[in-house]
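[step 3/7] fold_predict: job queued, chain A
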Amino acid sequence: MTIRDPRAARRVPEELDEFQSAERHPDYRVDIERIRFSPYFSRLSAVTQVISQTGAGLAVHNRLTHSVKVAAVARAIAVRLSTDDGPTGALVEELGGCHPVVVQAAASAHDLGHPPFGHLGEHTLDRLARDRFRLREGFEGNAQTFRILTRLDEHDQPGVGLNLTAAVRAAVLKYPWLRGHGAGRRGGSRKFSAYAADVDDMRDALAAYPLIEEGQQTVECSIMDIADDIAYSLHDLDDFYRAGLLNQATISAEFRAWYRDLTELRALDAPAIASATRAPGHSLELLWRRLQARDPWIADADAFERAVSKVTDEVIDGLLSVPFDGSLAGERSLAGFTSEWIQHLQASVSVDRSPHRRSGHVSLDRTAWHEVAVLKFLHERFILDRPDLAVYQRGQASVLERLVDGFSAWIDDEYDVRRAPRRLLDLVDLASEDYLHTRREHPELLDTTDEEELLQRATGRGVIDYVASLTDAQATSLDALLIGQTERLWDAGQGL
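[step 4/7] structure written:
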């Protein structure tokens, strides 16, 4: 690969040193090391995946361990596709190529934008951004990831973020559009991968892939996306099994009632199903209805039933039938279960020249797609809906609200703003530059061009950027400091 290849182009050209020049494809290896050495990457070790380590012990995954495993799953898929010497390999190359290191880099970076407290934090900051600061785009973890890589995290020069290659920047764009521009695509208008202020970086990266149609992932990105789904569906199951949170009897009752009452369930209308999800069998039927309504192009009743059967046999009557006891035998059994499922799902990947709008060029086949949906259902239904978790999360949401309000008030305090955290002030300045640049270059992407209003919104974006960059522990400690409920000044203030 030469620097003339648009996939290897950086926003600002760089000279390779003597050691790098001797390597094959050095640009991508530089990228992955910049990501791995980033403080934003390091902080993922202290950011919640679903349940925090403080709440359930050290065995659970955090965002860092999740990212490492996504990278491993993604690399295995990429190696297989990039070394295929048949029609599949030729199609992959035609669509722009599939370099395993690019895929690894994207997988390592894909969760950098996640704020404290997991998806709860993401939803809370999105609401606060829109309600408190009138930020129409709100907050989105994927868009925040792209903003970190291209703007907030700097390597050795200002203004270009980590100055990554176009290939890696494009490979993190899971939802390659702005908020509200993805109707009919995967994730719809709820998900997006770039804010309006970062649209030039997004377009620059995607320009290196002229055969990838607008709104579609690159091949490397779709591999990362699949690997994320695989890891999420299995490693969260691993966590909850270890923590003893998956009640085998309750889950078994849900699945067996669905089988037993399937004829009656299919006869019920949607409101009747939705209003009785606590009754065994109804939640699983509601899952099928949602899959059918959202993705009729792939949803298949027979494939769904086979997936339910496989999960019943291997997970409910298999893994969950023996509670995890922490023994070596228990560890081996769990490792074997997870490994077999990952290998099965990795082998279920196919490549399509003209995929459906809600799919990617690389995707899971019909059978595996349904299996992943049912695996995800286990923790979405039996963990995320738990009242005790809801109470815990409401407390975490209150922490983020107080932080956003506290730092916003500090910025507005003309007498004390000079003592605000330096990084907070820097992020507000960056956001101000970005909003004014967007006003000049892309006014059509803004709902106002009033300079004073834009600068006020930029303050809000800077505050959101700052709070989103904290770890769980830093958020909790800073909250205690801001409301005057701690005497551990120096320890608690490390997040500043």
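[step 5/7] annotate
The chain is about 60% helix and 0% strand.
The longest helix spans residues 387-412.
exit 0
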